[in-house]
């Protein structure tokens, strides 16, 4: 979950040092315990490491400017600690004891202890607590002047997940990369070559990117990139063009990326709906690429994801179940799916959802499903990501790059895509009536304007956040289509405000959780108008009787609900199935403003990283 950046050559726009530091800043959401750079300067390799943020690293590099003169190449790293405490010694880059190898790493080397014990027995002195030092010292022991051969032997010796970026002391115009499981992307613009963990770090230089495959190495020079298998055999490779604009990774006028990305949600929804529908019809045939007759024969549907993406699949599951009961539907957390005896085969469709396309557990689950002969679709936000390359059929969520660690606009992109996919599947199976199709497509088309209206209610939501920021915790309750939204609302408060917050189906409160209620624990009740409103309000009344402060989130036509809350947030009325779309933004803004009141680091919450690339 760390961020890696490298550059060799003369970039036309920035110096090598600027390239590396800018790239680390763009990837800091991947980890921010410590940071470091290794710069090949006129007098050798200068290794600068700090505990803290990239902004502090920038200051340290500026202090060492005279020592970094003539930088020809360099590598950098921003760390999310796994093995070893957060210290300068454990920060990357690492150097071999003889100074021949300098290395940065993302992932986990599972056989690092064995390698370390063997090398220590031979007299090699280790100085860090990390698993990363083992491949660094081992590569220095292997290397005898042939970088390709040494890299090949190293990669075949390692067990686990790794993206490695390496400089050899005697090869000043080369950077070597290798990858298994952890993401890595490289690029070249004719005068310099680059590598990074995330494509957003490279968009200032080129949009034509090479995504390193499983078991692949690359040699970067100022003149370009060469690719090799782990056995050292060279091969050709074509770039993937990424349409993202580098301006998308800029905060602009906003204080936080999260706030900017919340405001982008109406556009994400509009673009997604326009891409996959006509006025009253859904058509995802070209997007999916699965034969229509195969879609008709699907009996089992499996949604598999992690975190916020999992909650998005629950929304899609509930929409399908509300329209058709002939499918056997399950929505699994990816880390559990792969360890269960799940059914598969030609009559099963599995949909794997990952914002980054690099989520380790989701990738492992997809590989399992493919081995069972299951039809697989990936939903991801990143073209060229691992899941996009490995799963035959991919639908892009069209949200654009999301920098804030807490997912916002990608959730909207996912629930929109999954809703459209659900409607298309039911249509192909003959289970979706023309009237329901027209009603729901019309409802989706009306949503962007409604989301924009909700954003204009931000001052009211900000005031409620300030009022309730002193609560010791929060319960989010709802029924049916509201339940996934309660989970996402609770997660947002945990992620960015660090407050205890739990989500429950409203009917479950009396089965234990109600014991926790008092005047310091706020209940956020999601009560859209409809046939379950009275039942949910009955549960709210039980919470009021225990002196809990109540916030009611309801639709503007549900006047009865207003009398049950100390505070009320109203959202526009929509189709019942689509309440999660209109209920989402108030919960995001509520969490955002509570986090601001508490002085939290909103875009980079403690202990979190944007992409979970290790199990």
Q: TL;DR of this structure?
A:
The protein is α/β, with parallel strands linked by helices and 615 residues long. The longest helix is centred in the last third of the chain and has 22 residues, at 434-455.
Question: How would you describe this protein?
Answer:
The protein has 615 residues and is α/β, with parallel strands linked by helices. A hairpin with a 4-residue loop joins strand 13 and strand 14. The N and C termini lie close together (10 Å). 55% of the residues are buried. The model has no long low-confidence stretch (mean pLDDT 91).
Topology, element by element:
Blueprint: E1 3-9, H1 16-26, E2 34-41, E3 44-51, H2 54-63, E4 73-79, E5 94-95, E6 101-109, H3 112-121, H4 133-142, H5 147-157, E7 160-168, E8 175-180, E9 185-188, E10 192-196, E11 208-211, E12 216-221, E13 224-229, E14 234-235, E15 240-241, H6 257-263, H7 265-276, H8 285-288, H9 292-296, E16 300-305, H10 307-323, E17 328-333, H11 334-337, E18 348-354, H12 360-371, E19 375-380, H13 386-390, E20 393-396, H14 409-428, H15 434-455, H16 458-468, E21 473-478, H17 483-497, E22 501-505, E23 521-527, H18 533-544, E24 550-555, H19 559-562, E25 567-571, H20 579-597
